[in-house]
Design brief:
Length: 678
């Protein structure tokens, strides 16, 4: 069974080598999607990093091997499905396959670079209790290894060297890798920070750079790039003054600060170099300051997230979460920002989505993963939210890839620190483009951004639908109007009987005039028939046509899915659900129908792989793909869903939000209509 050195994994987890690719929005509302499997073939797999190539995401994975551990990678699509098979990275010395750390990943526009720490390079440098050296390997966009793996940094002759906590970034021309290096007795008190530039062809550019070799330990480096310089940050013990007995009964010195160093970007033929000296970013005032910082750049300034220990000594520790804004020249901006002091926060990570920072961390109380949005000025936006608080232990980080408004997070499940073993690797998307809208009698349409309500119009619509941050409303004789996040515009003066939306497509049922599609600039007729109901997902439209049953429009033609006439239909992804009255609830998976329940629901909504149904006096129930569970015995007037978030209209009791485990009231008012932009 593979054993993971905890300090190495913890430090590496903090630097998820993923970059945000997200369009800025006017509001910031996060909906957490369902977890999807990435690596579940063994009981001991772990991942700390992924990168996005514009089409797919490559996830680095470490898992057991026959004589040690295996370094591998898996491509996944923007919807969370596996792309091809997992690739096993061929190590330099395949005969030894010794203990290797989970790889960090970056992308250069053509290939990915995976870097990891291995505990072998040559016999004289091999050390059985720690990782010795950093290795790298290139992987192309098809998920194939390019060339052989290669060695990144020099060892010290006749001395143990301990390289861990590696992180990698691409500066537009070359890669830059940083790591923690321990020498002699492998103690953290002897750790230093080093870096190395590497060309996209795998050539080491220039010499290894000593980033920090101050007294005592420098640990857990992370880095970000602002277009001119690379900023490296780490936990630094050069100013330590708090000493006491540790859990083993020996004296240890604690207290560490956050330090940084600027490194100039490289050119095609020249490596970057140190730009100035090490600088102090946050001085510890508690018994032990930060460990394992994380850093992101917002286009103007940096933001660093770190945890501080509030108890002394190390065992029985409690950690709180803080942040610090930093200029591009390395100057601390303002004071320390308190992010969360309610939970036992650990291992924070930070990323920027084009509008706000997203901080994620692990709550050590039950080992769950939480998140918090923070503005570029350092103000908390909304409340902390659960990313994964399922039963069991999980670690995760979300400083990561975002595509189509969805932030990608890695979740490692089933770990056990007592045995240093791990479980499986999952992914989850946080939808930052989804929004929740409600209309209230006489008060018009309002939008909920996760913490506050804002009015979009004082007018009350006849009906409304949403897709992402775009809202559509019908206003009687005034026709259909579109809200694009900042302004309203009329799409047609005609008044439809119903509308549905998906992506950039809007579909309208105009009675005897049939079904029409709005593609962004013009209307086109899809059918002269008048449907009873419609739902849409992607570019696929489904309609019920009375005694003619359910039909599917695939973008070019109509196909009948069943001649039976349902009372209602809902859709999520490629899965269609039908309420067939006394026949119960059925699911269409693309080829066959299967029954999920013999009961007849009052209403249904679907999001991801989850179906929600209201069953009169029996309340709201959730179908997770295999079984039903009751969320509340209360009976709402209406429900809508986005990601793993469910909203219920409970009449005079207002609007309540279900987020995987708890209900929270977000309005005391009774809405006329509710929609989400999922």
């Amino acid at each position: 069974m593979k054993k993971i050195v905890k300090s190495t994994f913890f430090a590496s987890l903090l630097f998820l080598t993923i970059t945000f690719f997200l369009t800025a929005g006017t509001t910031y509302a996060l909906d957490v999607g369902s977890l999807f499997p990435i690596a579940t073939t063994t009981d001991d797999e772990v991942s700390i990093s992924a990168a996005f190539d514009g089409t797919n995401i490559l996830v680095g994975i470490q898992s057991p091997g026959t004589t040690g551990s295996t370094i591998s990678a898996q491509l996944i699509s923007q919807s969370g499905t596996l792309v091809g098979s997992r690739i096993t990275v061929q190590r330099t010395d395949a005969s030894r396959q010794a203990t290797g750390g989970a790889p960090s990943i970056a992308f250069d526009g053509t290939n990915y670079l995976a870097i990891w720490a291995d505990d072998h390079y040559s016999d004289e440098n091999y050390h059985p209790d720690g990782y010795d050296v950093q290795f790298g390997a290139f992987i192309n966009k098809s998920g194939e290894q390019v060339g052989s793996s290669f060695y990144l940094g020099a060892t010290l002759a006749n001395a143990y060297s301990y390289h861990n906590s590696g992180a990698v970034i691409f500066d537009g021309t070359n890669y830059f890798v940083v790591w923690e290096k321990r020498t002699l007795d492998q103690s953290a008190d002897n750790a230093d920070i080093y870096g190395q530039f590497i060309t996209p062809s795998g050539t080491l550019l220039g010499s290894t750079i000593a980033i920090s070799t101050a007294s005592h330990g420098q640990r857990d480096p992370a880095l970000a790039f602002d277009g001119t310089n690379i900023m490296v940050v780490w936990s630094d013990s050069r100013n330590q003054s708090a000493c006491g007995l540790n859990s083993e009964g020996t004296t240890s010195c604690y207290e560490s600060d956050i330090y940084g160093q600027l490194v100039t970007k490289s050119s095609a033929s020249t490596a970057g170099s140190l730009n100035g000296s090490n600088f102090l970013l946050n001085a510890g005032t508690l018994p032990r300051d930060s460990t394992a910082p994380s850093i992101a750049f917002d286009g103007t300034n940096y933001f660093i997230a770190f945890a501080e220990e509030t108890t002394f000594p190390y065992y029985g520790d409690v950690w709180h979460l803080f942040g610090q804004r930093v200029s591009s020249t390395g100057a601390a901006l303002g004071g320390t920002i308190s992010i969360n002091t309610d939970a036992n926060c650990f291992l924070p990570s930070v990323g920027f989505d084009g509008t706000n920072y997203l901080i994620s961390w692990n709550d050590r109380t039950n080992w769950d993963v939480y998140g918090q949005s923070i503005t570029t000025s350092g103000t908390l936006s909304g409340s902390a939210f659960a990313i994964d608080n399922d039963s069991g232990n999980q670690l995760g980080a979300c400083s990561g890839t975002a595509v189509n408004g969805k932030v990608f997070c890695l979740i490692d499940t089933g770990f056990d620190f007592s045995t240093d073993t791990w479980g499986d690797v999952y992914g989850v998307f946080l939808d930052t483009s989804a929004s929740f809208y409600s209309s209230f009698t006489g008060a018009g349409i309002w939008q909920w951004n996760g913490s506050t309500w804002s009015q979009l119009t004082p007018s009350n619509p006849t009906s409304m639908v949403a897709s992402g941050t775009t809202l559509y409303g019908t206003f009687g004789s005034n026709g259909i109007w579109e809200w694009n996040g900042s302004a309203w515009r009329q799409l047609t003066p005609s008044n439809p009987e119903a509308i549905v939306a998906s992506g950039t497509n809007l579909y309208g049922d105009f009675g005897e005039s049939g079904v029409w599609q709005w593609g962004g600039s013009s209307w086109s007729q899809l059918s002269p028939s008048n449907p009873t109901s419609m739902v849409a997902s992607g570019t696929t439209l489904y309609g019920t046509f009375g005694s003619n049953g359910i039909w599917q429009w695939n973008g070019s033609a109509w196909n009948q899915l069943t001649p039976s006439n349902p009372e209602a239909i809902v859709v999520s992804g490629s899965t269609l659900y039908g309420d067939f009255g006394n026949g119960g609830v059925w699911q269409w998976g693309g080829t066959i129908w299967s029954q999920l329940s013999p009961s007849n629901p009052t209403s249904m909504v679907a999001s991801g792989t989850t179906l929600y149904g209201t069953f009169g006096s029996n309340g709201i129930w959730q179908w997770n793909g295999s079984s039903w569970s009751q969320l509340t015995p209360s009976n709402p007037e209406a429900i809508v869903a986005s990601g793993s978030t469910l909203y219920g209209d409970f009449a005079e009791n207002g609007i309540w939000q279900w987020t995987e485990s708890t209900w929270n009231q977000i309005s005391t008012s009774n809405p006329v209509n509710m929609v989400t932009g999922n």
